[in-house]
Amino acid sequence: MEKTVSEAIAYRRSVRVYKNKSIDSEKVKQCLVNASLAPTSSNLQLWEFYHITNEVISSKIAEACLNQSAAKSAQQLVVVVVRKDLWRKRAKANIEFLKKIYDKEGLTDSELKRKKMAINYYGKLIPTIYNDFFGILGFIKFIIFQIIGFFKPVYRQTRLSDMRIVAHKSAGLAAENFMISMSAIGYDTCPMEGSDTLRIKQILKLPRHAEINMVISCGIRELKGIYGPRFRIPFDEVYYRI
Q1: CA geometry: angle 153, 157, 158, nearest 5 deg
Q2: CA contacts within 13 A on the Cβ side of 234
Q3: How far is CA 238 from CA 169, 225, 228, 232, in A?
Q4: Which of 82, 101, 79 is nearest to 44 (CA)?
Q5: CB–CB of 64/196 below 8 Å?
Q6: Is this prediction's pTM over 0.85?
Q7: pLDDT at residue 141, rounded to an integer
Q8: CA 211 to CA 195: how far, in whole Å?
Q9: Dihedral through CA 82, CA 85, CA 89, CA 95, nearest 10?
Q10: Do 46 and 83 form a contact (C-beta atoms < 8 A)?
């Protein structure tokens, strides 16, 4: 029986050794569908998910993951990729979706206003934020917004590095959706950052501007694959009620 959200979160551990037991690729794929439903900045969905089931490719990815046991013993692998370079395409897709859902007669003034605001958001504001030229435009925008910020609240994350962080945060949210979904059906995962990301890009034949967010190994846990009891800083030390 599938676990509740709280049960899935409690069950999830970073598993370093998996059983030599196959897992259902279609179930993993459905967990990736759940990943794609994660919240994402401006609904741009600047992510891609590479589901590795081919043993030869898995072996190459494991080697690029520094031969970690979590990668070598995995039954399948998922590579979460950030595609900030696709912002124009994804903004256009949002505009087309908005035009479609508002393509009806008798729209109220409120609906017409909402349609105009949303289309302007993707057609004007998103290009203003995401357009850059070797980081120069982003820095200029950063200075301008810092000055405006003296007089009123303003969005300040406009540099190239800021937008990379935004895209990676969204991809991280999707990865968490995936891992909790896997946990809910009794499958295990381990998010791995220790890897040669350039080699992984080459193995997957990714374009230059694509960035590896993380590699996630998948399988069914061996008891020795969990390295001891879970440790967390006491909640009172990290929780602040204002």
Answers
A1: 115
A2: 2
A3: 20, 28, 23, 10
A4: 82
A5: yes
A6: yes
A7: 83
A8: 12
A9: 80
A10: yes
Tokens, residue 37: 């439903």
What domains, with CATH codes, occur in the chain? 1-242 (3.40.109.10)
What is the Cα Rg of the chain in Å? Answer: 21
187 close to 32: Cβ distance less than 8 angstroms: no
| Interval 105-129: pLDDT, tens | 888 999 999 999 999 999 999 998 8
Plot region of 45 (φ>0 → left; ψ -120 to 50 → alpha; else → beta):
left
The count of other CB atoms within 10 Å of the CB of residue 3 is 16
Tokens coding 168: 């990676």
Cβ within 8 Å of residue 30, ≥6 positions away = 181
- pLDDT tens profile 165-197: 999 999 999 999 999 999 999 999 999 999 999
Question: For every residue of 188-217, which 3-state class applies, written as one string?
Answer: EEEEECCCCHHHHHHHHCCCCCCEEEEEEE
Taking the C-alpha atoms of residue 54 and residue 129, their distance in angstroms, rounded to an integer, is 39
Name the amino acid, one letter, at 117: M
Compute the distance between CA of residue 201 and CA of residue 168 in angstroms, rounded to an integer: 16
CA angle 190, 1, 70 (to 5 degrees): 15
| Single-letter amino acid, residue 59 | S
Cα separation, 108 vs 115, in Å, equals 11
